[in-house]
Amino acid sequence: MKIALVALSETVPAGDRGPFVLARALAEQGHGITVYTRQADQRQSRAVTLDPGVTVQYLPAGPPAELPVSQLGPHVRQFADGLADRWRRDRPDVAHAWFWAGGLAALAVSRDQHVPVVQTFASLGAAEHRHHLPDQGPAGRIRLEASIARAVTAVLAQSSQETADLADLGVPQAAVRVVPCGVDTTRFRPGGPAIRRGARPRLLTCAPLEPGQGLETLIRALPQTRDAELVIIGGPYRRLLRSLPYYRTLAGLAASAGVRDRVIFAGRVPDGDLPAWFRSADLFVSGAAYEPFGVATVQAMACGLPVVATSVGANRDAVIDGTTGVLVPPGRARPLGQRIRELLAQPVRRGAYGAAAADRASSRYAWERISQETLTAYQQSAA
């Protein structure tokens, strides 16, 4: 198939859930992939061959600078005009759009050129509003996403919770398929190097260093956890952490809880080092109240880590309670700390959970399966 991936922002979504990773996985199956994204740097070439079978087209749309998705609305029309020009010369069999901005642009062109559109929202405005996230995007986003979801051929939801949210927006169930994030099981696997550590039990979490990620809950739970240390991966590079107000908030909370010496802010770490960080830990923990992707949870599972996570969003789908880890209610430090303490005291159970976690990650979330499920949605849409 000739497949167009439409994502106005090159950097979001990122990690093992973005269009670039999916493009490589689809190209390995013999398909021709063109990723259409916004030119965010004047020095970028208009077209770049990323891998065999994968081309990236950078289209002008607004200022040549990085912009968050919430600020892309005024530039969608210019992007769609560039997209229409490209598709008149090289029409794809199917288009896969990311976020509301990508869906809006793809639909604007598909109506005239009869290209079926598959949509991934990654995060719905309705869910972000429900969880009081700080940046929920432009006014009218919820209505806009509902219109896009009803207009496209299929919506690929990240979790069963997103499927329920789409149903609340009036999207027919037959148009929605759950296709979660993928994980590169050649990199994220139990065997391999690990970051050096001390004698303390190690808990590890990966999250943006910002409110709403449950990091406060994890720190409040730490006094119950048998002298364990908590490694927080996320935010800017470590040398820049002190300039971040929320870092100072978390450090102050850790000090007041008497665990400042047991909280390690690792900051941003290179993607290539992530598997070694996961392998250095005894447990992966997630205190998120809202988790639309579950990427870090699945990556940790693929490395053989048992998980203690809040029973929300993609975590609820990924973690089998009592088999690959433990699910706890969000926002409650006491039960979270209690379950962590229990697992740290039971190495045999941790080992069994870790083995089951690695098996589940490789069988359900490996990119080979995720790309095949995505391709099936494309083929059904094109038909």
Give the strand order of the largest sheet, numbering strands 1, 2, ... along the chain.
3-4-2-1-5-6-7-8
pLDDT < 50 stretches: 12-17
How many strand elements?
14
Shape estimate: globular
- Number of folding domains? 2
Q: Please tell me the CATH architecture of the largest domain by its name.
A: 3-Layer(aba) Sandwich
Largest sheet properties: 8 strands, mixed
Give the helix tally. Answer: 14
Q: What share of the residues lie within helices?
A: 25-40%
Radius of gyration: 21 Å
The helix-and-strand class reads alpha/beta
Q: Helix and strand succession? A: EHEEEHEHEHHEHEEHEHEHEHEHEHHH
CATH topology of the largest domain: Rossmann fold
Q: Per DSSP, what share of the residues sits in E-state strands of 2 or more residues?
A: 15-25%
Overview of this structure, please?
This protein is of the alpha/beta class. It is built from 14 helices and 14 strands. The chain folds into two domains: 198 residues, Glycogen Phosphorylase B (Rossmann fold), CATH 3.40.50.2000; 163 residues, Rossmann fold (3-Layer(aba) Sandwich), CATH 3.40.50.
Tags for this entry?
383 residues; eight-stranded mixed β-sheet
Condensed summary:
With about 375 residues, this protein is of the alpha/beta class. The protein folds into 2 domains: about 200 residues, Rossmann fold (3-Layer(aba) Sandwich); about 160 residues, Glycogen Phosphorylase B (Rossmann fold), CATH 3.40.50.2000. It is about 40% helix and about 15% strand.
